[in-house]
Amino acid sequence: MEIDRPDVDGAVIETNATLVTRRVDITSEATLWLTSIVLRVYVTPVISAFGLVTNIINILVFSRLNLKQGATATFLVLSISDGSLCLLGIISAVFSMLKYLGPSHLKRTVNVLNVTVLAACTVPKYASDFSTVVIAVVRCCSVAMPLRVRAVLTVRRQLMLILLLVLTAVAILCYSCTIYKYILVRDPQTNWTHLILTLTPGFTKKVQISDQYRGVIFYSSFIAVNICLIILIYALKQSSQFRIKATGTNTSEGLTEDKTTRKERQVVRTVVMVSLVFTVCNLPSIALTILRATVPGFRTVGYLFRSFDMLFMFVEATGMTSAAINIVVYLYSNSNYRKVFNQIFRPNHKK
């Protein structure tokens, strides 16, 4: 993610009231360019296109399931969010292709448009992350006190909670976007008008505040999902042991109990798999946020901006991967999903 920087050699000049220093990024321009071509022109577009198709399928399937169940409704929201993210990823990929492979006079304007699309990707990404958090937390609480959770955390309240969290995150995003300003600049040599993204006065303080709030949101979500993941894995293990004992006794009471818990195990298994995907695919984001907080200059406008851009491209790719592969989880762990999927896309399929 790039903006117009005051440097032509690759070493950004950083200034304060009394000191001017010149530092060189550890990532070369050639390395960044090659990585950009591979990830933004080839890898991420393919993942985004695949994710858009799979999430359209997910939306069709979940819309035919029982939306009165909290898990189904939240999975539908998750699919809509992931599909929107992949759609924006495709648009960003088009701008990236124009930037790296298109006419030179379009590169600066296309770059600004791409940055804008990447900023817009934050909204469905937040919606996807918060949906995953709500799914994991609600299912985790249901393991301990199922009746109380169903009474308190109704489907409507779960959806309202996701909406509230997304609106809060969007407000923080809008605040962080005030550090930028769009201007039109005409190049007298080529007579082309370029769209430029510049920094407004006092941007440093706004960036720090925005990073702090977004860090709290991200780490809270990541920690919550992983705590719930541990609890759900333990609950799934206990349920499997009970199932073995119930099957071994072969009594009507044991079989009835096993039948009533089979559906719950299926939901828990799906939530566990989705949470695992969330955790693994967010590891590059964890690295990015840690480096931004601990390494001076590791940010979009710092002297390590090329290293930041390179890691950010991996964050983009893994984010799209997380949005694209949930269909594999649903087909593997959810028999109701498989049933509706076969009815829609494989009507002649034999069980």
Automatic annotation (TrEMBL):
GO terms for cellular component: plasma membrane. Residues 54-330 form the G-protein coupled receptors family 1 profile domain. InterPro entries: GPCR_Rhodpsn, GPCR_Rhodpsn_7TM. It is found in: Cell membrane. Keywords: Cell membrane, G-protein coupled receptor, Membrane, Receptor, Transducer, Transmembrane, Transmembrane helix. Its main location: membrane. This is Chemosensory receptor C. It comes from Elysia marginata. The lineage of its organism: Eukaryota, Metazoa, Spiralia, Lophotrochozoa, Mollusca.
